[in-house]
Amino acid sequence: MNTIGTAFRITLFGSSHGPAVGCTVDGCPPGIQIQREDMESDLSLRRPEPGIGTARREEDTISIISGVVDSVSTGTPITITIANRDVDSSKYIKFKRIPRPGHADFPAIMRYGEAHDIRGGGQFSGRMTAPLVVAGTVAKALLSTLAIEVAAYTQSIGKVVDDDAHDFQHVLEESRRNSIRAASAEMAELMRDEILSAAEDDDSVGGSIQCQCDGLPVGVGEPFFDTLEGEISKMLFSIPGVRGVEFGSGFRATIMRGSEHNDPYAVLEGQVITVTNHHGGVLGGLSTGMPLMIRVAFKPTASIAKEQNSVDLTTMRETSLRIEGRHDPCIVPRAVVVVEAVVAIVLADLCLRGGFIG
Question: I want to staple 153 with a disulfide (CB 3.0 to 4.6 A). Which of 54, 183, 345, 356 is the partner?
Fold first, then answer.
């Protein structure tokens, strides 16, 4: 399915090498300030940096087809398209016969047969995250009416890991000052070197993104099955390349004792808080009012220049494959704004469902 959400529904359409990609956002209340400049700003964070990203250069020209007039939502479905202009499909034809390791080619060909659009990966391409970003801009505008903010940064690239704890406002500002989306200029340089090292070896590298949400009221989520972390995880796993999601202490909780992992309650300025935040802002599928802390793991980019082994599906014989074309040695920096968008979309949906937004 290409539609997700209950009260705030997102439908994606288009493909990597088609005329355009786009989305329809249904459920945004009327009267919300939605600025084209904010969409363009968010999309700019998804663009590759020259030298460490794909050579594909899209202007990401936005067309707001419906649902917004004079920068204000009308309450009707918001449809937005983003033109695809820098397209070269010539390198992809052979992948319908020889699937690329690490890509969705093989299962997609088995599922859809000759109808599968192999150009640029079709609907499985990272290009489909562009409309997710603009849908996220709409969601952020809606969340701002409750003073809810979402910010993320690159926590690791390969073996370079930022283990420091960062203030939310610092992340909100600093991660937008460098193209790696790191929380400091120093970490950005180390991470850039890690990416360049992989690229020089005709290889790729993965990493992780830390995302935080501040201002979320207590009780957001719809247990039993539509829990806060469950809904966020489901949508995060729709982002190409995601291989893991954890909240708070995550898998580290398995080596902690209950006395260590339990977060003691306290009162601060008349509000109930927890002294620590191992739970990452969610218990029992509901938000606790503490910062929502999410870590997202990304695999190394599947497209690498090294020769790889594959199978010729027409002859059913093993063969070798060398991928040409324009690809990122690391997608993590470009994915930071996508993670922010996805988290914002889910929070907007759950806030509407829970009656937190009027």
Answer: 183
CB 312 within 8 A of CB 255: no
- Cβ-proximal residues to 163 (8 Å cutoff; 6+ apart), any chain: none
List all residues 6 or more positions away from 97 whose beta carbon is below 8 Å from its beta carbon.
312, 313, 314
User: Hey, what are 5's tokens?
Assistant: 């959400």
- Residue 337 to residue 43: CA distance in whole angstroms: 8
How much is the pTM?
0.95
239/124 Cα distance (integer angstroms)? 9
- The DSSP annotation for 42-77 comes to HHHHHSPPTTTS-S------EEEEESEETTEE-SS-
Confidence check: pLDDT of 223 > 90:
yes
CA distance 152 to 335: 10
Which CATH number, 3.40.109.10, 3.20.20.140, 3.90.980.10, 3.60.150.10, labels domain 3-353?
Answer: 3.60.150.10
pLDDT in tens, 264-299: 999 999 999 999 999 999 999 999 999 999 999 999
Residue among 249, 277, 283, 247 nearest 263 (CA): 277
Predicted confidence (pLDDT) per residue in 31-72, tens digit:
999 999 999 999 999 988 876 766 656 688 999 999 999 999
A 10 A CB-CB count for 267 gives 8
